[in-house]
Structure formats: structure tokens, C-alpha cells
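In practice, a research group might receive sequence data for several interacting partners and want a quick structural hypothesis before committing to experiments. The following worked case mirrors that situation: the sequences arrive first, and a predicted assembly follows.
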Amino acid sequence: MAAKSTFTMAKRDFRASAADVERAVRGVHPTPVRGLFVVVSGRRYPPKQVMSLVTGLPVSAFTSHHAVRTLRRLGFAVGRRGHGTSVFTDPMPSTGDDLVIEKGASAAARDDADDLQAVLRQHVGYWVAVRGDELLVAAPDAKGVIGWLSQHGERAESMFRVPADEGAASGVAPL
Amino acid sequence: MTFGFRPMPIGPAGSLNRPIVDVVVAGFDAAPQACLIDSGATAIRMSDEIAAALGVDLADAPASDVVVGGARVRGREARVELTIDLDGDDVTWDAPVWFCEDWPQAFGLLGLRGFLDMFDLALSGQDETFELTPRFSY
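A structural hypothesis for the assembly, expressed as C-alpha cells:
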């Protein structure tokens, strides 16, 4: 079960887990996203709307930056609507039971590509994010990878699932 | 821009070079999705896990079954903004993408509608390279 995080909002202390956040927004339609958004249960919400639902505080009681920072710490992906850019600030510490954190597991200067291949083979079937010859993170689902990247302010060059066999790396039969 | 095929691990010991390009989906440029160029695919298809993780709304999206690698999967089509990096230029276009349940492939697939009707492709299997040229202003 995901751990609860303690955070302060409007000078009050709260404790919540990612599951608590998902429960809070269940059945609630997102208000229009104008700039920043957070992805909760597959939908994009304004961060302040989510934090207001979680804490019961009015949106005027805290800043968008504070809401984003808290939600990112809980592992939610945060982005910005339009312009093809994502918002990242200072990285946050995090843990994830199902995540394999490989940051820093870079290949040696020689045979970089081969070494990355060897590292990737240890994660067959896992979603991975890579940058250069470095495996940033591996997780059992795409949400885990994207949440980790958002949480840590990291930017991958490529994300995919490590194929188990040649069939998984092949194209599609025409339809 | 000329791309080289990319080595991908296949199982516990093999490796295969594939024509793959990284595509930013719905503006989330922290996690470009590796996609295989596939002229045999009629459309752009990828895992619905991507849609869920990036908040692409599929609630009212039309659904249909597709055959992928011998498996029949259910997909939902949504129009999303896609971006690829061509020599330092971000090339962005709006495309229909099928997000599929239980996606069996390791990557997304870039097929005819939404990709190969937007870019000219020159591919050399011998050299393991390919070139992409947009057919639109960006």
C-alpha cells in the first residue's frame, strides 16, 4: 500500500497518499485546464482543484506552485497545456515499491550501446525510460515511469516496454 | 533528417536494429514514446497505458478492434498533438491515434494515417537508416 505523505497547506498539516488523491477526485469533472495540469486516474485536472478536493480548502488558500509541488511528491505527472512543454522544478525524493531506479547505471565509455542492452535485458516486459546510454527508471506500467520522471524532474529521450521476443518488436498485421 | 536504426534487446540474449523514432505525445516531452515506423499499419497505434498516464481523454472516443501481431485488441481513437525532433526543430502536428488495451508491442506503431500521410519516408534496410521529411509547414 502506498505510503502517506505529510504536507502543510494554508498552515495546516495534512496526510495523504496517492490513493487518497484518486479517491478525492473520483466522480468529479475537471474544471477547465488553462495552464498547468496534473494527471489523476487518467484525467487532467487543474492542480488547485485537486488539492482543494483533497484538503477541503478553498483554492484561494494556497498557490498553484504549492499544489504542484505536493502532487508531484505524491508521484503524479504534471504538465502544461499546449506549447509541447512540461513543467519541472526541483527534484523530489521518492520511493516506489515497484520501481527500479537505475539512474546512474550508465554504460562504460566503451561499448555503451551493448552495455545498455544488457541493462535493459534485466527488465524484460517492464516500461523503461532511457537517456543516452543511461536507464533512468523501469516500472511495471507506463504510469509508474511517467510519474517518476515528473516527480524527479527528469527528462527521458525515449520510453518503451522492453520486448520479450521478436514478435513484440515487430509491426502490425494490416487491417 | 536522417535517423539510424536503433538496437533493441530481444529476449535474454538477442538484439535487433529497428527503425524507431521518439514521439512526444500530447505535449508531455519528459517521456517521448519510442515508436516503430510501420508501413503495414493503417494508423498510429500505441498502448492505452500512455493515454491514461498522460491524461488523454478516451471516454467518448470511438472504439474498434484491431489485429496486432496476431492478437485482436480493442482500441479507442483520439486526436492528439504529436511532436518529433527533426535536427533540433520540434515538428508538431495533430493526428488520430488509436490507444489499445492489452497492447502486445514494445513500442507504438506509426502507420499510414496520421504519420506516413504527413511525412515522406526514405528508408534503407541495407544502411539501416531512414529519413523523414514533413509534408506540412511547421
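Before designing any experiment, note the following. The longest strand of chain B covers residues 71-86. Chain B touches chain A through 54 residues (CB under 8 Å).
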